[in-house]
Structures are given as structure tokens and as C-alpha cells.
Amino acid sequence: DLRGVESHGLLRLGSYYGNRISKGFIDPTTPFKIISETPTTALIDGGNGCGQVVSYKAMQMTIEKAKKSGLAAITINNSNHFGIAGFYSMMALEQGMIGICMTNSQPLVAPTYGRTAIRGTNPISVAAPSHKEFPYVLDMATSAV
Fold first, then answer.
1. Which of 8, 15, 32, 77 is deepest in the core (most CB within 10 A)?
2. Residues 94-109: b if buried by 16+ CB within 10 A, e if exposed
3. Between β-strands 41-45 and 73-77, what pairing exists: parallel, antiparallel or unpaired?
4. Among the options 40, 81, 119, 128, which is catalytic?
5. 81 classed as catalytic
6. Model pLDDT for residues 31-67, shown as the tens digit of each residue
7. What is the spatial distance between Cα 124 and Cα 137, in angstroms, rounded to a whole number?
């Protein structure tokens, strides 16, 4: 909400997360685990938990790996909605790094002239430090809903 993206903040707290947690669709304990890991990569099973919890941890891990190796990438599966992609890519800015975050989504969008939703919104975010007053931040979906 503080970044002006009200569709991904408190608005979803009760209607999306509370509803899905109470129906057992999301595990609120977010029991994620690392499936495989190298010095520069990792695969995390999100445990069908809250996307924000596991995504925050994954970006922290990515930043620590990148500090040691210069570059790192972590993927997550079996997770849920994680809010705005820009939040995670911007975490790298605090360390003077470039951050990239992307995800897929369920089919929500019909193609041009189509009637059936077959494409996801598939958000992408890139954040890069700048020598100017503000950093470069791209936070977008690959479609409009």
C-alpha cells in the first residue's frame, strides 16, 4: 500500500489470504525447505505457504550468495501470491546490487480477441542502483487485467 499498489496489500489480507487460509488452501506456517543448493543457486519448496514469507527469505539468500559469488539465482515452487514483485527486487538496492524478480500466475487474461483466460499476468521487476537521485525500478505485469 505504501508504494501506491493498493491491489496487492491490505486489500488482499482478509479477502484473499484470510479466506484461503481458513479454507486450508494456504498453510500459514509456510513450512518451506531448500530442495537443492549450490554456492550461486537454490531451489526452494514453498510448502504451499504464504508467498511473501518464502519470497522474502529467498531474496535474502540470493543477496548473500551474490555478495560471495557476484551473481546468484533462486527459484521457488509450491508457493502462493507474494504481493508486488518490486518489493523483492528492491531489496537488492539496499546492498548496491541489481535485483530481478519474476513469477507466473494462474490464467487470468484472455488473449486479444479471445474469450477464455489462458495467460497469466506473469509479473516482472528489475531494480538497479543509479548515480542519479533515484534508482531504476521496473515493476510490471506482462498483461493488463
1. 32
2. eeebbbbbebebeeeb
3. parallel
4. 81
5. yes
6. 999 999 999 999 999 999 999 999 999 999 999 999 9
7. 11
